[in-house]
Design goal:
Elements (H helix, E strand, L loop, with lengths): L5 H10 L2 E7 L9 H9 L3 E7 L6 H11 L4 E5 L8 H11 L5 E7 L5 H9 L5 E2 L14 E5 L2 E4 L3 E2 L6 H7 L10 H14 L3 H6 L6 H12 L11 H13 L9 H8 L1
Parallel strand pairs: 1-2, 1-4, 2-3, 4-7, 4-8
Antiparallel strand pairs: 5-6, 6-7
Helix pairs in contact: 7-9, 7-10, 9-10
Length: 266
Amino acid sequence: MRLAKWSLIKDIVKKANVVLEVLDSRNPIGTRSRKLEEMTFKYNKNLILVLNKIDLVPKRVALKWKEILTDADVRVVCFSALSKRGVEELKKVIRCSTDKRPLRVAVVGYPKVGKSSVINALKGKKSAPTSPIPGSPGYTRGIQLLKIEEGIYLLDTPGIIPIEGGLFESVIRGKSPEELKDPIPAAMLLLETAMKYNSKCVLDAYGISERDPYKVLELIAIKRGWRYKKGGEPLVEEAARNVIRDYHKAKLSFYIPPEEALLVEK
């Protein structure tokens, strides 16, 4: 996984008229970048928050987040790249966000929030790369422009924001599970957080009723037959990587309630 440098993110923002910040609906506050938003407003760009993966939370939770996050400067669209819900609404909000034409749209966000899926949903099947469009000075070779519809173009390069803020998101999104030298602390924090918000998530995902995070990892390794060749002890590191992958695949199911997240933020 390659996180973009902030200098590249700035370049993407400056080339766009509209910035789509993709959030994970399971934890929108934790996947929101204040630095990106400050940069977006500094360069007088329009900001739209895309509340992605709404199929992973109850409808009332998604709508509550939309209500909380919407303000005078920010529009919020509930979105599911998986079911394509919200695609037409997002296009409409983009279209109405500014009178500028041609209009260039950038998609940015933390790792694993679904940026590429949002890009693919907006592109549709008919999109094709286009040469630099009129009125786009400083166009960078290597960043493709895709025509969404007449006068609206997509910068086909998801900006992967460097992780900032809370420990939870930084440990499970900062690096891929395979890149973590010691994935056990990250997986234990993930399991602890998951069980706090959904007491049945480990039982539902793995058929394990244990509550101690480390013991959960041991039991997962034993069930999967993952053991060290020497000594036969449970290969807990592989179980830890598996748990992190399962969160990103939505097998380990939980979400952070909007009300609690707001209390923590305040």
